Amino acid sequence: MSVHSDRHTVGSSIRQPALQSMAFRETARSGTDLDELSEALSTPNAAIKMTAERNTSIAYHCNFISVGDVSVGDCSYEGTIVGKRDGVIDRMSIFLPTQGNMSFGGKREPIYSVPGRGVILEPGNARDTGIFGPRRHLCMFIDQAMIARRLTHMFERTISGGIDIHPDIDLTSGPGLVLQQIVSNLHSGLSGDGLLQRSPLAVNSFCEAAVYLLLETCSHRYSEELARPAPAPAPRHVKRAIDYMREHIAEPLSLDDIAVVAEVSVRTLQQGFRQFRNTTPMSYLHELRMQALRQDLLECDGKQSIAEIALRWGFVHLGRLAAEYRKRFGELPSQTLKR
Question: Which of 15, 69, 205, 221 has the CB geometry, 3.0–4.6 Å to 143, for a possible disulfide?
Answer without folding.
Answer: 69
